[in-house]
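Work Package 3 (structural annotation) set out to generate three-dimensional models for the target panel prioritized at the project kickoff. During this period the team completed the workflow that converts sequence records into discrete structure tokens, so that structures can be stored uniformly alongside our sequence database. As a representative example, we reproduce one entry of 363 residues exactly as it appears in the project archive.
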Amino acid sequence: MPPDFFEWTVLAPRLVAVAFVVALLFLRTPLAKLTVRILFARLRRRNADRYTRVRSALLRPLSFFFLAGTARAVLPLLSIPAPYERVAANVLSTLFLLAAFWTLYAAAGLVASLLLDPERAAPGKVDANAANYITIALKAMVFVFAIFAVLSRWVTDISGLVAGLGIGGLALALAAQDTASNLFGSIAIMVDKPFEIGDWVEFDGFAGTVVAVGLRSTKIRVIDQSILSVPNSKLASSIVSNGALRSSRRVAFHIGLVYATPAAAVAAFVEGVKTLLNEDPEVEPDSVLVAFEKFAASSLEVFIAYRTNPDYAEMLRVREKINLAILNMAREMEISMALPSISLYQETVRDGSEQQTEERHAD
């Protein structure tokens, strides 16, 4: 122990430094809460739930930031010998930088929720895909800057290290061409916006709901509720049908009437179906098509088409309602619908015996 250790001029600053560190050790969390409360006072008044999420994300990194910053600030008061003081300064500076970048990293994670704020005006809104990409990009930037900031405290010639990392990065890029193509595919998806999270999409024989869009792949929940992971490069080059952008759904089918139906009855049936569809408020009037289309093998076929609600479940409900109404109307008009039929023909051959031939129709 140095002979001047107990001298008041040396001991007092050390006691002050230790007192500051101990005080911050106990007060770091209240100080972090107070800082968040001051910085986000307006958010706390407008949206309590969002303020709670922000405080939860920033509380721990901020408290560590204050503790590491205080320890670094009071280090000169300890009067440590120069060689040890340099090492201690680098260690505390590294902890301080890590705490600062940890705070920035946590703040970057809140960008997506800020951009997706439902209270934002329509011109300022950002879709979920773009918000996720912006968040990932900000986190990556914070991570890279944190690495170089920490290395600058320990490495004298950082330019040589950067040059070495550049050569290594080139080799890594050549070995990761698929990853790069997926990255560019994700950028193409973000810029072109063929779909958003929650949309129903169909592509290359697959169909499902978009769950998440990442830098490498897009997660899609298919009909059996399993998750399909599709590389973004493949998705960006595929023909994608976005069902969520559908303004309406088209329903088209045929009804076969028996050949014994009189022409006047067929015409009345066609006009009745037209009236039924045009009077339904859930059917688009301009989309109604009803016509006696053709003479089929065992029926007189009437073509019916219309457009209705784009939601699949709602479309089924409207279709069922209209089908039942058409069925009731046909019964009221005493019109019979055709079934798959078998026609028997009887003829007399030269020797006087009879022969039956059978003709089947299954329309």
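Confidence is low (pLDDT under 50) at residues 121-125, 355-363.
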